[in-house]
Write a structure and sequence with these properties.
Elements: H1 22-68, H2 71-92, H3 97-106, E1 113-120, E2 125-132, H4 135-146, E3 151-162, E4 165-174
Antiparallel strand pairs: 1-2, 2-4, 3-4
């Protein structure tokens, strides 16, 4: 017996005699989804038009306020605003020496005495010369300085013992924020 592809075989139809609910549920879901999307579109369009009307109302009020404000005063306000912005820029870039000196003083070992401090803002370094009783104290001081926020590296240079005291130079490499 040869199989006839033109005529379907009823033995293989597992839905024969059964009502299928999926297409009906799918159609219901699609209609609900369609109404929801259309409703949201019109709702958002309505809200958008309401907000545009508010913006237009505020634009008219701003134009009225501009028209009532004299031109001389507008120029004075703009000049003042530019001056404030320039001053803000200058103050943001200002080096606050008292703050970084206070930070160094607060982190100085009590048995160290500084003889010289040189801060180079262009190279982001602070060179400190001083004297201490021994190398252990110098090491503790270098460790304390390395813990300061903004200090990237601490180097001990030119340490030597003279008459039972240690003279040394500490070089602190700092980032830009250390001086501001």
């Amino acid at each position: 017996m040869a199989f006839d592809f033109e005529k379907p075989n009823d033995d293989w139809d597992y839905t024969k005699g059964k009502a299928s609910t999926w297409p009906k549920s799918l159609m219901t879901f699609a209609l609900i989804f369609l109404f929801l999307v259309v409703g949201l579109k019109f709702g958002f369009d309505f809200l958008n038009k309401a907000e545009e009307a508010k913006i237009e109302k505020y634009d008219v009020e701003i134009e009225k306020a501009k028209a009532s404000f004299p031109v001389e005063n507008q120029k004075a306000v703009l000049t003042f605003k530019n001056s404030v912005n320039s001053l803000k820029t200058i103050l943001d870039n200002k080096v606050k020496t008292s703050e970084f000196l206070t930070i160094i003083a607060n982190n100085t070992h009590k048995e160290i005495y500084f003889t010289q401090l040189d801060a180079n803002i262009n190279e982001n370094t602070v060179n400190i010369s001083g004297v201490a009783k021994n190398l252990s104290i110098v090491s503790q001081a270098a460790n304390a300085f390395s813990q300061i926020n903004g200090v990237e590296d601490v180097e001990i240079k030119n340490s030597r013992e003279t008459y039972s005291i240690i003279t040394f130079n500490l070089v602190l490499k700092v980032n830009n924020s250390f001086f501001k």
